[in-house]
Amino acid sequence: xxFSALGLKTKYDSDEDNILDCxxxxxxxxxxxxxxxxxYFSSAVLSSAAQGLEKFIQSEGxxxxxxxxxxxxxxxxxxMEGASHPCKAKSLQLVDLLLESEDRNLKLLxxxxxxxxxxxxxxxxxKGMFHKKxxxxxxxxETVVFSGSANETLAGLSKYNSEEVxxxxxxxxxxxxxxxxxxxxxxxxxxxxxxxVKVVSIDSEVYQKIQSGVDIEQLHKELFPSSMKPMVTxxxxxxxxxxxxxxxxxxxxxxxxxxxxxxxxxxxxELFSHQIEAIDSWRKAGxxxxxxxxxxxxxxxxxISALVELYEDRHKDGEPTFAIISVPYVELANQxxxxxxPFNIVPVQCYDTSEKWAITLDKKLLRFRTGxxxxxxxxxVNKTLSSSLFQSKIAKVSPKDMLLIGDECHxxxxxxYFDALPLAxxxxxxxxxxxxxxxxxxEGSPFPDTVRQxxxxxxxxxxxxxxxSDAIRDGILAPYRYDLVPVYxxxxxxxxxxxxxxxxxxxxxxxxxxxxxNDEQSMLTNWCGARARILATSSGKLPALISYLKNNxxxxxxxxxxxxxxxxxxxxxxxxITKVTNHLHEYxxxxxxxxxxxxxxxxxxxxxxxxxxxxxxxxxxxxxxxGIDVPVCQSAFILxxxxxxxxxxxxxxxxxxxxxxxxxxxIVDFVVLPLPGVINHFSQNLRRAELERIEDFKLTAIxxxxxxxxxxxxxxx
Length: 717
Hints:
By secondary structure, the protein is of the alpha/beta class. It is 42% helix and 18% strand. An 8-stranded mixed sheet has the order 1-7-6-5-2-3-4-8, with helices on both faces.
């Protein structure tokens, strides 16, 4: 039962309530951890609370107890100055008392210490200090704090003395202002960082003598005769507390520990050499850097393995880890959730509506900040990452405990997202193409590459590279065959292309002699976009696609991707992707659009239909460019005519992932060329731009010699 279902009040007065019955017994019956700081202590309270404590003990709950020991002026000064060390004497007194007494109350305390369920520290204070008592009950996602004057004696917990306690609940807004303060006070005491108090652990001999001086199984039978559950002796200071079967089921869901899997997708899990080298390089670079690994070569598993290794290192040192994985799209976020599962990581999914994740994250952050949870992983889409709500949540985490993994990290270089990036101590950026190349600029565009600058500022630089040719050579990606289909501009498109090119060239020349105004920059951007749409939606592309399919009747469209340009063709209102999809339907192809316009549930349904061959082909613009893992893809038809290496490298990678039965992939590139017979500066620039992509694809294709001949035949040189 959760604490919130116990019907607890916010204040209890011993003149009206039995604090033991109303607070301690019901909370201890449900708690997995219990922290208590008291001015004085009586073991009799443990016997009085036996009903709740029995379940606490049997579930192997852990308790931390600070016992105040008020000192005289001279004693206090001697302890604070280091001249006196009373803890050893107090510890030995305690062990003699526990081992020699026949009192059931003291035997309960002996049992807790022997089972390593109870850690005790002495707080040496000046008389008159340390009056306020703190008690903290932890249970999965809920915490209850009580604060007041009641001490751990029967008089303080029953009606024999007038006492009052206030309770603060983690599921209420007031907890941040009151409950957290008490938790921080207790942790400050436990860590001996509170001024005016000397807190010391009881001497290790206490644990050793009690461990060797009692028969734990016999003591359990004596204290709890109704429960004959077999007991398992733990090694000294194991700090690995087994739970009952019921408790184990709860912890398995709520507090999973990251670890590398033995089996993934039916195969033994093992990193490739390039992945191991990437992690080693990242460590040597101070735990910050970019992984420039080819699409399909295992960027995700590499970064998750780095995360797990980092967690394990920090866990050994008693340090917590807060991991943020930022992605551009919801589909990619959902894919990460699946990829994390074999590593025993269940992330908080910080996308969709905040009502679905904000409360969960708050609960985990509470446990993280109070030391009862040492690992949190969140997956967040970039838009949410930059939101004020998410920023307010992660502001509660120290940057020294934080790891940021940016998937398709080139998106994070834009100023809006860059400004939202946390100052995490540990940073990994993932991208097959983190920077645009110099040739990717629009014929000498005057706009600075701020994305590159920002990425280098945040991630520091590339720490590991693994190219597409490396991946194909090593058998990690499938080989591919490359085919060219020429598409020629018509007279109207040629005229418009040259007109926009002339305007763009003049504006760039003007920019070289002085800074452009905002209006001029806007015009330049619009002209570049309009010219790109002419190429992307050229009227000859769709007939060329249908003709290619007719001329290759044995070619199967099953598990194929068709990439098209954005927007509409000049003078048309119908989106080009809709136009292509409709024509393919009319031709008899089973295709579906896959864009950001569909809802997440619609995209999941479409993707499932694609994988199950209910749909043969997906027609997409950009949403399939990055990270979406579809290994079953056999072929890609590229009608988009992009000059952006990032896009065409990603699109090629989509079909090269290995899958059962795939021996090689097919990439068909619809190359846009000038109107036949037109030879001028602008037309030659178009040929060179298309040739750049062709050369890139040809380089790693299995039919490169055939493509070289085709280039000469088409006059693309």
